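Dear colleague,

Following up on yesterday's call, I've attached the two folding results inline so they're easy to grep. Please treat them as preliminary; we haven't cross-checked anything against experimental data yet. The first protein's sequence and structure tokens come first.
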Amino acid sequence: MTILVTGATGRVGRHVVDQLVKRDAPVRVLTRDPAKADFPEQVEVAQGHLLDIDALRSAMSGVSTLFLLNAVTGDEFTQAIVTLNVAREMGIDRIVYLSVFDAKGAVNVPHFAVKRGAERMLEQMGFGAAILRPTYFIDNEAMVKDVIVNHGIYPMPIGGKGVAMVDARDIAEVAAIELVRRHDADGPLPIETINVVGPETLTGERVAAIWSDVRGRPVAYGGDDPTGFEQNMAGFMPAWQAYEMRLMAERYVSHGMIPEAGDTDRLTAMLGRPLHQYRETAEALAAA
């Protein structure tokens, strides 16, 4: 039986595939364009997307375990619920689902709220699932690198409560560990929720200080007001999505993303190594 990975050409999904290949796990990916997939030869490639029911059924044939990652789109909730229904129809009851930190609490942020809806389906329909709840991705900083480097401003309004930013490589390795564990189990394992956090809880001021140190020149925090952030996002994404990013930023400012007791220790025990730190990404982006 095979492990099916969705979202495999994205930042996290590609790392998940790499981690599964390292573990000699049988992997199939679902992608819209196989010509652009560029995976190792042992990875099976199925063409299609999550709202293409025939392609989804075909991709799920012979699959026991599913990694479900939905992109932030206007129909994200529909994609998630349809995919889980087809998985149930095809007899797949071992799921690793990429949700988001504090999915229960952030009810007004669309791509947080829809993930809680998918979590509820997993809980109430008897799936054996690992629900991964990552915090803000450190890798997102690539989007604001030019502002930091060229203008000396850290523009992400993450506030002063603190956000335990996490590296996509850590998310992917935790996902791969859970996928293999569930794939190899004699039967479906119980639902389990894992907060996937970083090793440091960072404020806007602290992140600016890290960048100041890395660059050797001052970088200031742009402040908590998300208005400018929304306007900048609207320059390269639809207005509804830029507004959604604003709502997410407002949540960072009002609540932060603060790990629960034991979250970091649990992850380091799973991985058998320390979590990647923010400074690593800052140094790599500055060097590039």
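Below is the second protein, in the same order (sequence, then structure):
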Amino acid sequence: MDPDRPNAARVYDYLLGGACNFEPDRRFAERIVAAMPEARSAARENRDFLRRAVRYFRARGITQFLDLGSGIPTVGNVHEAVPDARVLYVDVDPIAVAHSEVELAGCPRAEVVLADMLDPDTVLDSAAAGRLLDLEQPIAVLMVSVLHFVPDPMPAIRRYVEAMAPGSHLAITHGTRDARHPNNDSAARLYDETGSTSVSRDRAQVEALIDGLDLVEPGVVWTPQWHPDTAPGDSDPRESLIYAVVGRRR
């Protein structure tokens, strides 16, 4: 990894107020914020969705989680939101994995694997998956704020769904241009500089990512609209910039 080049995971960490980032990441993040001032609040809304989703799944009896493209560990990790569950984190970024290993030291119910989430067999056949996950039982698979960096995620998604037991859930958040932000294009071009070319998908395309699963209400919505903890405020939910969707396998 090149610490002199901004990295999408470390930029996200900075936007969340984390400390696992370098000066190039911070400078780049400020350029994003200059183009889209909502970027910081959008990152927080996305993280809040993750917290609500895993608690929703835990309340329905799910005790194991597979967090794909988990990124840099910061406040609100899955194992913190549901401390009695088993969690396998997966990321392809060695820096994210190294920080995760430090974060998870002494935590027997959570591990991290250095792997490409687009290679499901390597992930599912890993030693850590064998220790933590029982694919005969329901599982929650999380793809949070990662698929907008993947041109064709469907082959990998289908393989994970195939491996999921009935009663399992798939949770996705995805950046979109449906918010009609005037600087969408300029922000996308900025992300190209990190080597993580972004792919915008509209509402119908995001729903198609869970094809074959039962759509969990309220369907495809902006992140703050998915099972919110509090009554809606005055802010426009489109300012979250990110869709959320959850599917359940029968």
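For the second protein, one point worth flagging: The longest strand covers residues 169-175.

Best wishes,
A.L.
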